[in-house]
Write a structure and sequence with these properties.
alpha/beta; binds 3-hydroxy-3-methylglutaryl-coenzyme A; binds magnesium ion; lyase; hydroxymethylglutaryl-CoA lyase
């Protein structure tokens, strides 16, 4: 359990993609700068998808260009197809993420094609990335339940993870998109996937809709998974997953890990400042329990 954990910050992408209040390119860049300054050195900063589908991620090219001066950090962007890959590369992307779903219903709603068709769309992306020396991360959505198709069998997740792995993804991020999972189910799913892919190459991407994310992360850590996707302030959700709230909050993950004696290298004060600033721009308080508690503590101390 004491092995190091790598946190991939999702706030500027998964977080902001589902926020109603528009956030300017300058503010998105400043958010990324603040997150890196807090010690989050891997940040997903945008998505090269249809601006009609996700207007919040329009101008991701400007965001990616705008953060390129930041040293010592790795920036990820989503690409659904070759068109997205080309645009991401033109903006300087060195790591891209393809995203598939464990269910047909979600695949259709999210990227307007079947799971098999999505894999066909990824193949030219993978081939070009190999030639270009670009790393590709692979997401699977709905690994613990689908808003359209209901229950998802661990084998369906394991099979798709195997396909993405065979295509050349360096890491597979397993998404509980609608946050319905519980620890035993999370363990079963991770065991099924890690039967063919080393746990060191898996990531947990759990949304906190039902308040189960930290418990599920702990269960996954017991299975040897050491990469966690989280969003500052618990921002966001998925526009195509009705009712889904944001990723588990980065503050909550950092608090849990540090409390367990696992050093994250993340400065909680700076992270809280980044969260408070984006929350101010969005006009609402952070969803993170830890951010809420720390803000209340500060208020008490100054009153
Ligand atoms: P499509 O309709 O199948 O694609 O959309 P198409 O090739 O038929 O093109 C339709 C239009 O989209 C055309 O424009 C294309 O040029 C354009 P039009 O002629 O109508 O003006 N287009 C693009 N534009 C920009 N960038 C592109 C691109 N490709 C085509 N790359 C597509 C397919 C995937 C593009 C569309 O369905 C889409 O953008 N969907 C949004 C998907 C998305 O961003 N979802 C949220 C992120 S995934 C997520 O949150 C889950 C995750 O966090 C894990 C988890 O929690 O589970 C990762
Ligand atoms: Mg997500």
């Amino acid at each position: 359990m004491s092995d190091p954990v790598r946190i991939i910050e999702m706030g500027p992408r998964d977080g902001l993609q589902n926020e109603k209040t528009p956030v300017s390119v300058e503010a998105r860049i400043a958010f990324v700068e603040a997150l890196v300054a807090a010690g989050l050195n891997t940040v997903e900063v945008g998505a090269f998808v249809s601006a009609k589908a996700i207007p919040q991620m329009a101008s991701s090219d400007a965001v990616l260009r705008g953060v390129s001066h930041i040293e010592g950090a790795e920036f990820h962007v989503l690409v659904p197809n070759e068109k997205g890959y080309e645009a991401a590369r033109a903006a300087g992307a060195k790591v891209v993420s393809v995203f598939a779903a464990a269910s047909e219903g979600f695949s259709r709603a999210n990227i307007n094609c079947s799971v098999a068709e999505s894999i066909e769309r990824f193949k030219p992306v993978m081939a070009r990335a190999r030639t270009d020396g670009v790393k590709v991360r692979g997401y699977i959505s709905c690994v613990l339940g689908c808003p359209f198709d209901g229950e998802i069998k661990p084998k369906a997740v394991a099979d798709l993870a195997g396909t993405l792995w065979d295509l050349g993804c360096y890491e597979i991020s397993l998404g509980d998109t609608i946050g319905v999972g519980t620890p035993t189910k999370a363990k079963e799913m991770l065991r099924a996937v890690s039967a063919s892919i080393p746990a060191a190459h898996l990531a947990m991407h759990f949304h906190d809709t039902y308040g189960q994310a930290l418990a599920n992360l702990y269960a996954g850590m017991e299975e040897g998974v050491r990469v966690i996707d989280s969003a500052a302030g618990g921002l966001g959700g998925c526009p195509y997953a009705p009712g889904a709230t944001g990723n588990v909050a980065t503050e909550d993950v950092v608090y849990m890990l540090e409390g367990m004696g696992i050093s994250t290298g993340i400065d909680m004060e700076k992270l809280l400042a980044a969260t408070n600033e984006i929350s101010r721009l969005l006009g609402r308080p952070p969803a993170s329990r830890v951010a809420t508690a720390l803000n209340a503590k500060k208020k008490r101390a100054t009153s």
